[in-house]
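re: the backbone from monday

yeah here it is again, tokenized this time
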């Protein structure tokens, strides 16, 4: 028995799986002391998710029934340390052939198992890495049968490949999208460049037309200004004419008044001549009565009467002339009055024309100023459009350069296969349970009981 204890890890259980004894080699392998495992159940070495399974219960039922069970098993030592044992569970029977305890003889194959896992992991990792180097990012390192640091290493490689596949996929999709967008931008810039050039040409033509219109309006403004000055001069002259006509009307009125006074004086003279004629006639009668003595007085009376008659005749002619003059003066006065009213209307009309011409001149000046400002604005727009055209050409060149770079980038990453070629969100690496937990190894019992796969507790 001493040789067995030196060569094997030995642990004893009752039929329910409770630990009754363990040698130093077993205790060293799992890292526990005898006191720490005494009386505890075999389940302390088994992953918790396997303890309550049907396979685990059937395993103990089969051993308690007297069947031997062997295989490689993963034990969980102290602190969660993984220990691989190549073990045989041997039921020990009494004199009646009834099992009363179970002894497990095991060899610690942890180092051998780890070496095999490491070798397999290196080989599989090398295969996956070589495929990745050749552009195939779809391969992954299998995780079945790997535990501990080896499983972590393989998971790390798979995570790295997942990240690389994600990056390459995103770069592919992004470069394709950038290429498409760059083509669209280049096409749009080309179209925009053409329209901008057309707009620049139209603005140049508009600027030239506005310059011609500005010149015409400026000339009209000058003409309106001159016409306004002519109208002002005409208004001044019309006002002077109005004043002159007013003075003529006043003069004609004075002449008419003087003519009436002269007519009145002529009437007085005519009356005096008439009275003188009567007096001369009376003097002649008295001279005739006086006879020879009154003959000289009769001659004088006759001469006086003749003179009175001539005076009366002259006064009558003068009165006739004066009357005719008064009539003509009245007609002239009426005409002058009419001319005065007409001249007033002319002055008023000329004033209105002057005001209108002033407004036209002001409006023409404002139009000229406004059109000049519009012309300057169009000129500035033409300059801006020319600058925009240059910027559009630069943008088109930049878009073509971007398209070329995107095509180069897509060509560089197109050698890699990532499975799903569209953009995808990186998926977390599949975390395999260490070494296919909870599988039962093949039983090699003499009773021919059904074989059950089991790899770890």
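seq for it, each position gets an aa:
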């Amino acid at each position: 028995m001493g040789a067995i204890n030196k060569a094997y890890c030995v642990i004893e259980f009752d039929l329910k799986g409770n630990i009754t004894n363990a040698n130093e080699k077993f205790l060293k392998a799992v890292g526990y002391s005898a006191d720490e495992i005494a009386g505890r159940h075999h389940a302390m070495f088994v992953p918790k998710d396997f303890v309550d399974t049907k396979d685990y219960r059937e395993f103990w039922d089969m051993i308690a029934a007297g069947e031997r069970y062997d295989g490689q098993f993963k034990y969980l030592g102290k602190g969660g340390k993984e220990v691989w044992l190549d073990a045989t569970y041997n039921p020990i029977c009494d004199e009646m052939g009834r099992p009363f305890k179970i002894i497990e003889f095991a060899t610690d194959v942890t180092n051998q198992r780890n070496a095999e896992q490491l070798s397999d992991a290196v080989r599989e990792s090398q295969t996956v890495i070589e495929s990745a180097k050749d552009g195939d990012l779809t391969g992954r390192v299998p995780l079945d049968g790997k535990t501990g640091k080896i499983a972590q290493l393989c998971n790390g490689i798979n995570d790295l490949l997942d990240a690389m596949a994600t990056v390459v996929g995103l770069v592919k999709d992004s470069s394709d999208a950038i290429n498409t967008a760059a083509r669209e931008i280049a096409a749009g810039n080309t179209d925009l460049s053409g329209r901008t050039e057309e707009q620049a040409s139209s603005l140049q033509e508009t600027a030239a037309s506005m310059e011609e219109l500005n010149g015409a309006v400026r000339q009209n403004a000058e003409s309106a200004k001159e016409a306004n000055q002519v109208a002002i001069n005409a208004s001044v002259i019309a006002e002077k004419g109005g004043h002159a006509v007013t003075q003529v009307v006043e003069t004609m009125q004075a002449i008419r008044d003087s003519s009436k006074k002269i007519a009145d004086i002529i009437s007085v003279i005519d009356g005096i001549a008439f009275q003188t004629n009567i007096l001369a006639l009376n003097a002649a009668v008295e001279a005739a009565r006086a006879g020879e003595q009154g003959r000289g007085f009769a001659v004088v009376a006759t001469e006086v009467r003749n003179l009175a008659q001539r005076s009366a005749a002259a006064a009558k002619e003068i009165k006739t002339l004066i009357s005719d003059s008064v009539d003509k003066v009245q007609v002239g006065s009426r005409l002058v009055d009419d001319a005065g009213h007409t001249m007033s209307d002319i002055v008023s009309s000329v004033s209105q024309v002057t005001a209108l011409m002033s407004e036209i001149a002001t409006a023409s000046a404002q139009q000229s100023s406004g059109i000049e400002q519009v012309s300057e604005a169009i000129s500035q727009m033409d300059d801006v459009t020319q600058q925009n055209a240059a910027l559009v050409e630069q943008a088109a060149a930049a878009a073509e350069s971007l398209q070329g770079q995107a095509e180069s980038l897509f060509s560089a990453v197109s050698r890699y296969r990532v499975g799903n070629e569209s953009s995808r969100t990186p998926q977390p690496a599949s975390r395999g349970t260490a070494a296919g937990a909870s599988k039962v190894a093949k039983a090699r019992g003499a009773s021919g009981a059904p074989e059950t796969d089991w790899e770890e507790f």
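The first helix runs from residue 2 to 7. Confidence is low (pLDDT under 50) at residues 423-454.
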